[in-house]
Amino acid sequence: MTNAQNLETFHYDNTTVRNFSIAVVLWGIIGMLVGLIIALQLVFPSLNLASFLSFGRLRPLHTNAVVFAFVGNGTFAGVYYSLQRLCKTRMYSDLLSKINFWGWQFIIVTAVFTLPFGYTTGKEYAELEWPIDILIALIWVSFGLNMMLTILHRRVKHLYVAIWFYIATFVAVTLLHLVNSFELPVSFLKSYSGYAGVQDALVQWWYGHNAVAFFLTTSYLGLMYYFVPKAAGRPVYSYRLSIIHFWSLIFIYIWAGPHHLLYTSLPDWAQSLGVVFSIMLIAPSWGGMLNGLLTLRGAWDRVRDDAVLKFMVVAVTAYGMATFEGPMLSLKNVNAIAHFSDWIIAHVHVGALGWNGFMIFAICYWLFPRMWQTKLYSPKLANTHFWLGTLGIIIYAVPLYIAALVQGLMWKEFTPEGILQYPNFLTTVTQILPMYMLRAVGGTLYLIGTFIMIYNLYKTAQSGTFLANEPAEAPALEKAPVTTGGWHYVLESKPMLMTILATIAVMIGGLVEIIPTFLIQSNIPTIASVKPYTPLELEGRDIYIREGCVGCHSQMIRPFRSEVERYGEYSKAGEFVYDHPFLWGSKRTGPDLHRQGGKYGDDWHYNHMLDPTSTSPGSIMPPYPWLMTTDLDKSLTPTKINVMRKLGVPYPAGFEKEALADMDRQASKIVDNLAKGKIKANKDREIIALIAYLQRLGTDIKVKE
To answer: Which of 75, 153, 252 has its CA nearest to residue 495?
Structure first.
């Protein structure tokens, strides 16, 4: 036993934990409400009430609000609470804690005021523009610095398993954000990706997959390793399994990104690497799931009444389901049907709603009574929340799995005569609309449960007294080196060495996949006939990005007979060499557009954007009337040409001086074409630029019939 005279007294900071806990529920409600709105917009297009409330602009707001505001604040709340207690010390700097909290909330507010108004990079999960990217990096580093300094000033020799995952999360997310956010600014809220086409696709999905892997997974595995044993009142089931889980997961996960790009123009070797490592992921992922569930093995008799344990059981189970489904979706024969369908939406939401959401709910129900020194206001309401949330996830996900199978098979079905059974893409959409309605019902139930939790937590806080500085005591850290207990036991006493090794483990996969794609020319074969976009087409492409068209339309025809029959010649890597960013998409709510150019007349595109049902009866695409009345902003066009030249696009020297005249000539031709269709249009309107871009798509190569 330690002599009481050797104990040091200090106080845990609960204020920061409280702030992040309140933020997580408030932003969670906002993110879920936006998600419900866009779910309903797919069924009722009339709900697209204005440009800043259209599906294409709200979708990235929903994903950012859920990923960075809801899950992100949940991560910070859990880490700030658990890290202090695991290290037996207060966070190193109260100032850094405040900077982390207020800076993160400011970042979220900037997303709210930029994404709906069309300020976006167009890169999934990384839509925020360059000044906000810089701010994200600064705030994230302030969090990491505070965390690492706290670990270095700990009073406990060995780092508990949760801290390993926190360190890996910080390291990996830092690398992912810095590499993927390489962009050249055009103006204060406009930039172009530093990568193009295939290279941009690889970097983006190396980031996109691993943002899920590390920001939404490893951080919550750390929280699982802390809060599940606390709630169960039992130690982690297996220390050895946690070691295997940690090191194998962070090494393997980073390789799996290319499985998002199967059957695309990405080199086959990169696709194959993504598949192999995705399959390997099952082992460490399920090892972690079993470690979590078996930790609860002695608390099953309490699960019936304890909502916290209920949420944790379903959360860990959802983690297991999602991490089994991910590798299965990376199998090429499964991916051929599931990719671009609602299966991916269901898969992502099982993770976000089940794994992240339920862990957040469990942690909140566990934290609030302790920070306010009282009992939970209503266990009955907490259990009601659990059942509503669980039912909501089921009603949300199952119809989308059905919709995915129905639509995916319809896309590929041929008649006995060898003709596409459903050549009209819209036929496959109208078939699954009832499933979209059910999805909205499931989301509503989940949201109602969250409102119940907010009321329950509010009443809990109201009935108690908040403990801002929680007193604690612990003996000072012993300086003697560790010489027994095995190699990992020794490593746990050396946080900087562990951080370095974790960094190396995370970097290897990314370096092996990304570097050859940039250095070996044969990975990106060029096509002589592919030319840069004209200034008008470039402006039209920016409008396409602004309106979020990539959220519903792909630009990647895969080498399947069904896709070539439906859309045209499959896509080639060399066609995208001037695309900053790439726009291959990840979901087809509408048809692929890569061979759209010349397929319809200019008047068809004009009418389609003004009223989609006029050209496609029954379409769920929203109208875009503001494109017909908004003047095209040409003030940045010369600068855009200059920036593109710096990125390697071969615009001739001095071309920026001719750009406006070139735009005028091309716009005049489109206006003349519209006049033939009895449409009177102004050549300076945004719709003209968008038509120019759409008519260019896929026309650089000519394929013999």
So the answer is: 153
Tokens of 222: 């750390």
Q: Which residue has the tokens 């099952």?
A: 282
Rounded Cα distance, 464 and 481, in Å: 44
CA gyration radius, the chain: 26
Residue 137 CA to chain centroid, in angstroms?
17
Pair 268, 201: CB distance under 8 Å: no
What angle do helix axes 307-329 and 358-371 make, rounded to 10 degrees? 150
- Joined together, the tokens standing for residue 295 give 């930790």
- Of 80, 74, 131, residue with least CA distance to 106: 131
Taking the C-alpha atoms of residue 356 and residue 216, their distance in angstroms, rounded to an integer, is 7
pLDDT at 1: 44
Q: What is the DSSP letter of 651?
A: P
If you write DSSP's letter for every residue of 574-592 in order, what string do you get? GGGTT-SS----SB-SS--
Instruction: Please give the Cα distance from 357 to 332 (Å, whole number).
Output: 30
The Cα–Cα gap between 325 and 331 comes to 10
Q: How distant is the alpha carbon of residue 212 from its chain centre?
A: 6
Which stretches of the chain drop beneath a pLDDT of 70?
1-5, 482-485, 704-705
Tens of pLDDT, residues 415-459: 999 999 999 999 999 999 999 999 999 999 999 999 999 999 999
Please tell me whether the peptide bond between 581 and the residue prior to it is cis, using omega within 30 degrees of 0.
yes
Kind and range of the H or E run holding 13: strand 7-13
- Give me the pLDDT at residue 287, please: 94
E-assigned strand segments in 214-279: none
Contact (CB, 8 A) for 164 and 498: yes
